[in-house]
């Protein structure tokens, strides 16, 4: 604050240094209109406060001509230049059709979803380019009102996640297939190419249970009691009863699931089918259903979408990390139905477990380094170590290498989990036609019981409360 005559000009710079304000401090406010302040005086005050960039000449002139406006009130007198954030790097999956979004189905204008617009992942040949990585674009530095550069937020590096039977080029920017087969996305969006095992009909006792390191295609049905396990995808052209299906990638069932509360379907990526009835279904990413979900236990890491022409959910418990969407939820009989969104318990538990393991690794590293330090001191003092001490030194050095490797792996996984949790969109439940009474909604720790009908409504949390808005 600079005193000039019987008044003071007080300058305040914002915390981000992108704005400076000036205020005229004077004992008698009425004297403000009588003051005579020169532009030279104002600019000297700014110079003393090191404000050199973005000075608003018009405000300086107004302060000189109309000081009363600035008495005991901060007025912006300089604006910095805000930095422009960098653009994140991207991964282009070249085996997918142009403009196809593999992760999300096409949403129509009326809110329904066209599941069949998702093209099946094609066969690829050995040596075929599967994905290319584009680097992040640097941001543009800003300028503070004090003339200092403001470092922009850097764009994040995209990560090509390698699965089975794929190779990178030397620059690690291109991903190629190492074999002929079918591409499959598995946990954490890893890209794999698997060989294909086909059953030309139903799974029966002549076929038996299937456990295949690749993608499995069933051209018929899978009855109750059978088990199909695949490292890649499982594709069933018929229906699934109370069987057990487990895929590292996605599960696609053309004619639906009627499980009679037996068996289960588990997918590392998506589960896509026409209907789910009395079944237990889990997907790491999305559950996509074109007709109905009835009296079932359904879990999805991100979304459960049941928004086809019928698109009805009745009974059971549905849990999704991001969103549950349907045309109709519940019925006129108020059948109890539980919808839970916004929580990824498995990821949060994993993160807590990783942090705990990292603490142990770092503590063991500290003790190992301490032991090696003592041995090095003995070596310096005595010039050599006894055979026992040499053996101990070798063991400690090997232990350190193992702990370092383990720590790096845990840190890498920690970053993946944190990125997935950080990328969460606000959780929501969308109903495009009618929601009936009898629904229990759970958003994290918040609970709401539906006691009246809602039409075309989105439910989401705003300021710690479950609120509604109309879907257009």
Helix content: 10-25%
Number of domains: 4
Low-pLDDT segments: 1-5, 98-103, 114-121
**How can the largest sheet be summarized?**
21 strands, mixed
The fraction of residues assigned to DSSP E strands is: 35-45%
**Secondary structural class:** alpha/beta
For the terminal residues, how far apart are their CA atoms? 54 Å
**Count of distinct strands:** 36
Rg on CA atoms, Å:
32 Å
Average pLDDT works out at 86
Number of helices: 4
Shape: extended
Describe the fold and architecture.
The protein is of the alpha/beta class. The protein folds into 4 domains: 2-79, no CATH class; 90-140 and 155-186, no CATH class; 192-344, no CATH class; 346-422. The protein is 20% helix and 37% strand. The chain contains 4 helices and 36 strands. The strands form 6 sheets. It has a 21-stranded mixed beta sheet that branches. Strands 1-2-3-4 form a 4-stranded antiparallel beta sheet, with helices on one face. Strand 10 and strand 11 (149-150) form a beta hairpin. The longest helix has 38 residues, at 345-382. Residues 1-5, 98-103 and 114-121 have low confidence and may be disordered.
């Amino acid at each position: 604050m600079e005193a000039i005559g019987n008044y003071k000009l007080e300058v305040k710079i914002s915390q981000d240094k992108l704005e400076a304000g000036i205020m005229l401090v004077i004992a008698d406010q009425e004297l403000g209109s009588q003051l005579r302040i020169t532009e030279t005086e104002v600019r000297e005050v700014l110079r003393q406060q090191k404000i050199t960039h973005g000075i608003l000449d018009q405000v300086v002139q107004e302060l000189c001509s109309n000081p009363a406006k600035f008495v005991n009130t901060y007025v912006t007198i300089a604006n910095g230049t805000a930095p422009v954030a960098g653009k994140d790097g991207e991964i282009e999956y070249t085996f997918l059709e142009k403009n196809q979004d593999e992760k999300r189905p096409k949403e129509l204008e009326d809110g329904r979803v066209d599941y069949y617009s998702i093209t099946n992942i094609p066969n690829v040949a050995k040596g075929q380019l599967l994905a290319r990585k584009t680097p992040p674009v640097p941001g543009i530095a800003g300028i503070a009102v004090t003339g200092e550069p403001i470092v922009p937020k850097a764009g994040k590096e995209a990560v090509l996640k390698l699965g089975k039977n794929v190779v990178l080029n030397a620059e690690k920017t291109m991903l190629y297939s190492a074999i002929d087969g079918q591409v499959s996305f598995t946990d954490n969006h890893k890209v794999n190419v698997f060989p294909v095992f086909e059953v030309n009909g139903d799974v029966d006792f002549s076929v038996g249970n299937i456990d295949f390191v690749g993608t499995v295609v069933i051209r018929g049905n899978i009855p109750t009691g059978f088990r199909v396990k695949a490292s890649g995808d499982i594709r069933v052209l018929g229906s699934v009863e109370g069987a057990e299906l487990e895929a590292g990638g996605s599960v696609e069932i053309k004619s639906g699931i009627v499980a009679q509360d037996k068996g289960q379907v588990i997918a590392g990526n998506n589960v896509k089918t026409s209907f789910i009835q009395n079944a237990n279904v889990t997907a790491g990413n999305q559950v996509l259903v074109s007709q109905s979900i009835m009296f079932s236990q359904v879990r999805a890491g991100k979304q459960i979408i049941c928004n086809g022409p019928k698109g009805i959910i009745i009974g059971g418990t549905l849990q999704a990390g991001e969103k549950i969407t349907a045309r109709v939820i519940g019925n006129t009989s108020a059948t109890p139905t539980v919808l839970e969104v916004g929580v990824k318990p498995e990821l949060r538990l994993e993160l807590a477990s990783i942090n705990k393991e990292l603490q142990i690794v770092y503590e063991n590293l500290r003790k190992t380094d301490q032991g090696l330090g003592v041995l090095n001191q003995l070596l310096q003092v005595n010039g050599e170590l006894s055979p026992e001490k040499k053996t101990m030194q070798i063991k400690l050095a090997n232990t350190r290498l193992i702990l370092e490797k383990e720590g790096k792996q845990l840190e890498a996984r920690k970053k993946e989990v944190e990125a997935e949790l950080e990328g969460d969109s606000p959780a929501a439940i969308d109903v495009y036609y009618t929601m009936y009474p009898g629904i229990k909604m759970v958003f994290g720790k918040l609970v709401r019981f539906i006691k009246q009908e809602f039409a075309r409504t989105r439910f989401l949390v705003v300021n710690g409360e479950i609120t509604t808005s109309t879907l257009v």
